[in-house]
Amino acid sequence: MICSRAALASLAALSFLSFSVVAADMPKRKSGLWEVNTVIQSGAETSTEKSKQCIDSANDKFADPVPDNTKCTRNNENFENGKLNADSVCRFDVSTVTTHVEFNGDFDNRYTGEIRIKYDPPIDGIKESYVLLNAKWLGPCEAEQGAAAPVK
Questions:
Q1: CA dist 82 to 15, 16, 54, 102, 149, Å?
Q2: Which residue in 51, 65, 60, 46 sits closest to 135, CA to CA?
């Protein structure tokens, strides 16, 4: 199966989203402008991305449900003292994707996340991926910035 690095990054994000309890148990991010720095390591390649999003805590889409084409056989989540630890085993296409997630923070001013993913069999020769998120609240959104929309 041919798979691009962008597709692996998407799969890494999907792995985190496989935690159905996350949306209910994790605190909502504070409304306003958030800067998220992301580092994705897939195989020997590493990519970084910096993005800004205007978030409305009333409808924060931090953990939307996983798409229908992903089947999870195990989801274990524990959210305590501002820290989420979660593990999942999901089937995506022909691979079994095993994920471990750790999120920390107050979600009012900042949060960090680490996502470790293993693919069996490997996808496009990649056996493991690692995603590191570091987010901080920058302040209120400008009037023209829509909620949950990327900001340039």
A1: 21, 17, 22, 11, 26
A2: 51
Contact 98, 78 (CB under 8 A): no
Q: What is the pTM of this model?
A: 0.76
Query: Is residue 2 predicted with pLDDT exceeding 50?
Result: no
For residue 94, what pLDDT is reported? 86
* Angle in degrees, CA 113, 115, 152, rounded to 5: 60
CB 110 within 8 A of CB 34: no
CB 106 within 8 A of CB 92: no
In a domain, 148, yes or no: no
Tokens, residue 13: 């994000």
Is residue 150 assigned to a domain?
no
Residue 149 lies in a domain: no
Percent of the chain exceeding pLDDT 70 equals: 71
pLDDT tens column, 42-90: 888 899 999 998 988 777 766 555 555 467 877 777 878 878 888 888 8
What is the span of the domain harbouring residue 53?
5-60+69-140
- Asked if 86 contacts 19 with a C-beta cutoff of 8 angstroms, the reply is yes
